[in-house]
Amino acid sequence: MEEIDRAIVAALTADGRLSYTDLAEKVGLSVSAVHQRVRRLEQRGVINGYTARVSFEALDLPLTAFVAIRPFDPSQPDDAPVRLAHLPEIDSCYSVAGEDFYLLLVRVAGPLDLERVLQEIRTSANVTTRTTVVLSTPYEHRPPKVALDPAGPHRVRGASAESAGSQPG
Amino acid sequence: MEEIDRAIVAALTADGRLSYTDLAEKVGLSVSAVHQRVRRLEQRGVINGYTARVSFEALDLPLTAFVAIRPFDPSQPDDAPVRLAHLPEIDSCYSVAGEDFYLLLVRVAGPLDLERVLQEIRTSANVTTRTTVVLSTPYEHRPPKVALDPAGPHRVRGASAESAGSQPG
DNA sequence: AGTGAAATCGTGGCCCC
DNA sequence: GGGGCCACGATTTCACT
């Protein structure tokens, strides 16, 4: 039953432009039924949207780096994410536990751009930076093992199907 | 001219299922012309493919962590990426400069799963791990500022296509 | 929830500019 | 490289189950 939803999500993560016709064939249902299920997956928020995957090399952004940041003055209000949002070189911003406050993923054209972006990060958010350069990317954005909650991300009650439950306490 | 390619890539990263009709309207070209340009962008490798964006919360993978790994015995051959590829919880694997050898992005259902995955990483690749838990994600996978090379990443005149990027020296 | 059919619209090849 | 045309296929809705 929801086996089919898993198959649909897996197929659409592999190829986001799959037609409903092809999708229907893959999962062994009629076109209408598949269409209906996709609509439900979208409005439940399981599928958030669709994007084209771009080659960062082709976009002249061959250099990737992780930048861990820490406020220069920890007593100041911490709004680094919004202060940094204007920098297009920042792909992602994670708030993390541990010694650092945030971990940024940045993509630039080369070392000189990285230097410039680091300076902009430091001055924009009043932080210190610790940078880890990515040398190569064996794999990235692999499709997750799809294990659907029966009714989406709602109801915080029961533990889920797999792996005996995320944190009981 | 290539201003239009930038607009196309930007539009398709924002919505990968945009029809050529809508795309044509957005960039102010005919449907045929847009179709032609998208085909070229695809075969030049600027656009690698299309995927559905899924909510990891909805997929019951609410816990994200970065795992830095380092070989237990640095004299052994280093094939950690292939030894770890079978673990579906690993979203991405980056080879990095710095103290660690690789940085992994993992997504799991909760702390207990994280513990299990860390054990599997250590035993599968014979490495030590240092884990940074993600508390929240202010933003992720933002569309890059699109700056197209005139003819894609091809022919760098002697150097190979990859990493021949822009360090003017 | 799934099916099949029907109207609408998008797609993908061709030819002309 | 852009525009327009046209046959085919995909999308989307509806009545039925």
> Architecture of the largest domain in chain A, according to CATH?
2-Layer Sandwich
Give the total of domains of chain A: 2
Number of distinct helices of chain A:
5
User: What is the H level of CATH, i.e. the homologous superfamily of the largest domain in chain A?
Assistant: Lrp/AsnC effector binding domain/regulation of amino acid metabolism (RAM) domain
Strand order of the largest sheet of chain A: 3-4-2-5
CATH topology of the largest domain in chain A, which one?
A: Alpha-Beta Plaits
Roughly what fraction of the amino acids of chain A lie in strands? 25-35%
Specify the CATH class of the largest domain in chain A: Alpha Beta
Structure class of chain A: alpha+beta
Oligomer: homodimer
Helix content of chain A: 25-40%
Strand/helix succession of chain A: HHHEEHEEHEE
Largest interface: A-B, 80 and 81 residues
Average pLDDT number of chain A: 89
- Nearest-angstrom radius of gyration of chain A? 21 Å
Keywords (chains A, B): DNA-binding, Transcription, Transcription regulation
InterPro entries (chains A, B): ArsR-like_HTH, AsnC-type_HTH_dom, Dimeric_a/b-barrel, Tscrpt_reg_AsnC-like, Tscrpt_reg_AsnC/Lrp_C, Tscrpt_reg_HTH_AsnC-type_CS, WH-like_DNA-bd_sf, WH_DNA-bd_sf
GO cellular component, one term (chains A, B): cytosol
Pfam family, one (chains A, B): AsnC_trans_reg
